[in-house]
Amino acid sequence: MPSTTTLTARLQARSDDDRLADLQAVHALHQQYVPVWRKLLDAYEGSGGFLDGSYLWRYPNEVEKEFRQRQEQARYHNFVKTLVNLFVRHVFREGVKRDTTDERLIAFWANADGAGRAIDVVMKRAAKMALPIGHVGLLLDKTQKEASGPSRADEKAEPFLALYLPQAILDWRQNRHDDLLGVKLLEDAPQEDILAPPPHDVRDRQQYLIWTQDEWARFDGKGEFVEDAVHNLSVVPLIMLRPEPSAAQPFLGQSLIGNANVVTALYNRCSEEDEVLREQAFSILTVNVPVDGDVEKVKAQIGTDVGPTRALVAQGSINYITADMGVAATIRDTIAFLIQEIYRAAHVRFQRDSLDSESAEAIRLQHTELNEMLAGLAAELTSAEKQICRVWFAWMQPGDLAAAEQAMEAAQVSITYPREFFTRDLVEDIKMLADAFRLQLGETFEKRAKKRLARQMDPDADGQTRTQIEEEIDQLQTAGATMAQDAAEQLRQSTQKRLAAFTKPFPVEEGAAA
Prior knowledge:
alpha+beta; five-stranded antiparallel sheet; 17 helices; 12 strands; flat
């Protein structure tokens, strides 16, 4: 395939070595942060050094064999994944409302990645990656299929989203308004033949993709040209998702868990606790042999099989000596502190046994802080989706951004994420529902309260199940109506009894006149 872009022409004008050096060059911030990004991703996935033990800190003078044994036995408690998935679930559990009059955009939302995954699935995955690492890139590319007919309606090429982690966004350029002017991405090279041996050279396993506001070009890992095209979008179609944007570096985002070394420290403290318990927690049988005693004779008397069912007779006093467990207790306190720090960085309280000692105002502020964090995530997801839609309309009308904006406005695109979270505790909602029943606030209010409570008690219910639950709630009689009917029935029965008493003949005593 011949090259067609000035971007490719510039690179091919360089020598092979210079071209490869240009492709391998990375942004200064990428070089600085990539070790941190890798560790943050490992913390979420439980992979990398948390899987093979390479994140363990070696003790001074620790021999290789013992260090390897600790690495094999190290345990990783994945609090990061638990927190991230919890937040993403809360943001998406109420559902994202999307609406437009453009049928092709609706079709794109149903197949956002070109592989059958809806936009909800793609954005959830992006959020799960962006929260622990800080940011991800969503490239709205377009398939390279040729048109099958003379009109746009016959065109088969469609935009699709591809996710790029920060490690794969090698370099970028922005103007003073923070608009993206160009980006260089690292991709996995296609390996289509399952019977072919995997390449040993890392350069054969990767390739480079460069985008500017008008062109794109792809080169393999050795710097050889693969393909390119002129897109004329007037924008770089990479949308950045940053749940908490960096104030100092607008292109980057900040991790939910803050410093990855806190997670590494927790991993090491757990290994050290196991080591202390394994090496020091078990009592040691000791025998005090006098200076003039026969040590070997005592050893023979005791033997090597020592257990609780044996009686020992030996010279000298016999005792069990237990190691000082203060070290283990200190390590355990440090572990609890590090877990608390991870949760605190994520705006979540970890130790619930201290709730009684906290003031109501302190608890309210903590809930407010968490709500604001989730609302900020929802706002960033909304902004990213709107940018995706703008680029999608640019693909529909390349070369005319104004027309693309007008088309988007005419399509009445609406994207709404929930903005309120944890406004009340679940217990408070249950109390509110009980008060509604007691105060008889009416059928509409009671049913609305029941539906809201049902959504909170079963947030993972699918759409069909949730609809069925709400329909059943609509068919139920409200507590107030039931109470009123019960009261009416009691009054009716009481009245009937009184009337029956009035209609009975009075008893007549014997001998009395009729």
